[in-house]
Fold NAD(+) kinase.
Amino acid sequence: MKFFLTKDSIKRNIISSEIYVNDKFLGKFKGDGVIIATPTGSTAYSLSAGGPIITPELKLFLITPIAPHNLNTRPIILSGDVKIVLTISKPSEVGFINIDGNTHHKIKVEDKVEICYSTETLKIVIPEARNYYDVLREKLKWGENLC
């Protein structure tokens, strides 16, 4: 799963959001947006924004700032057992969330977005010949002479 928040238009410079973990303030994130991903979403958009690669068997959340306004703002990995609440903060007025590249929702300052792992699971059949590390190495061209 991949979830991200972006500003409402290209005209605005940054979006400001606040993130709470289990009702405790984690921090304010200012920049082009913030990505909240599970391991499955970590090798897509989050990786491009500077987030780490996370193996799919782990149950966790990854928060990756997108082009943060403050260079001290870094990705953070959290337990998958937490509840994350994201809000828009002033001076931002409106933002858009995107879930797995499909859904856009407009959110305002007074809105709260809650993110947690589902109690439902999905079982995926993977051929025995397909190895996660082989696929990763092939897609990222690890060990190849790229020049």
Q: What stands out?
A: The longest helix spans residues 39-48. The chain has two helices and nine strands.
